[in-house]
Structure formats: C-alpha cells, structure tokens
Please model this.
Amino acid sequence: MTHLSVNLNKIGLLRNSRGRDFPNMVQIAKQTLEQGVFGITIHPRPDQRHATYQDVRDLKALLTQYPDRELNVEGFPSDEFLNIVLETQPHQCTLVPDDPNQLTSDHGWNLNRDRDALIPVINKLQAAGIRVSLFMDPDPEAIALVKDTGAERIELYTEAYANAWPTTEKDAVLAQYMEAAQTAVNHGLAVNAGHDLDLDNVAELCASGLITEVSIGHALTVEALQMGWNQAISAYLTRLA
Model:
C-alpha cells in the first residue's frame, strides 16, 4: 500500500484570493484526515501566495490530534524556510531546488553541484528529529548520490510520467521511473512521488510496491470539483490500497 499525503496549497490559493480565512486550511485538513489519509503536505513559497508559514504552525498543531499521521513541509532551504521548519518540527521536510519566482517545481536536485551545500542542512533537520526527503528527477545515477547526503528519502518528480501517460511512450517512461525507484531502494532510501499525479495514472506508478508515499494536490482539487472532496480522497485511497 502506498500512503497518500494531500497537498493543500490550492486550498491556500483559493483562500488568499479573497483576503478572508475561507476556506479555512485547518478545517479542510481535518476533514481530509478524517477520511483516512496518511498525511498533509504544504509547500510555502517565499511570496506565500498559497500556503503560508502560519499554515505550517497551524497544521502542525492540528496533527498533534492525529499521532499516527504526518505533516510534510516542502520547500527550498532558505534561511526563512528552515527557521519555520525547525520551529514546528514536521514529521518530514522535502527539500526542493525551487527558484523563488517559479510557478511550480519543475526539476530535481543536481547533487554534483549542490551536495556539499545540502549536507549541513540535512544534518540540522535530522538533529531536530525531522525526516528529510530530496526532490529528484528519475535519474538512477543522480539518485545513487543521495545516500551520501544523509537524506532518508527521495521524492520522484513525476511530471514526465504524467505527460507520457496518455501516449505510446508511457511504458518506457514508467520503466525509467521504476529503475530510479529501485535504485533508491537498493541504496536504503524510501521513495515518495509527486507532481501531476491523478486518479488515472497514480495506480500504475504505485503498483510495483516501490513507492512509499505520493503527494497529490492540484489534480485532487480539480477532481474534487467534479465529484466532491471526500469522494475524491476515497477514490485515491481505493487506487492506492
């Protein structure tokens, strides 16, 4: 079974668009957790255009009511981001190589370039009891370098898989992702996955049993507009069982 962590960034975006606390992030997170999901993910960006640093605090407080569930906070390891992560101590921190002006995450870490800068960050997070995952492209050679950083997990950037899903390239791209996931497992790493996963493509990616956790937000929110929030979550849990 692959765990589902629901990314609530789009809830924050909708809330922020009207300058009111509606929808309320904590209320939606609680509703989501009550459906049986394993975790909540947010990715606060420097401009806080959707999830905010206060959301991190509020969601960590909520998660204390659910001791068997997890909060995953994603982001670029700026000083401001690391300060809020160390303050709140989520269960997992996923480090992402985002430029502050990026619309969304679109590439994994280059560890040949960034490894030495990441190691002290990872050490600091782990010293606070926070599990660390690195956002990575499906490149076995790059993933083989992750173990030397001390990180416990990777998150596979799955846009290429999602783009290939409706095409004749799907099987070849899926094989590439499975090779990358197996490389991670062979190096003692757990494997998360996220970006553009949806109800159509998520089950086949996770069928191998190599994927520990998927983080899904945008597609789930769109699908919920069609079928309802609880029903969308239930559909994902069925596919991941």
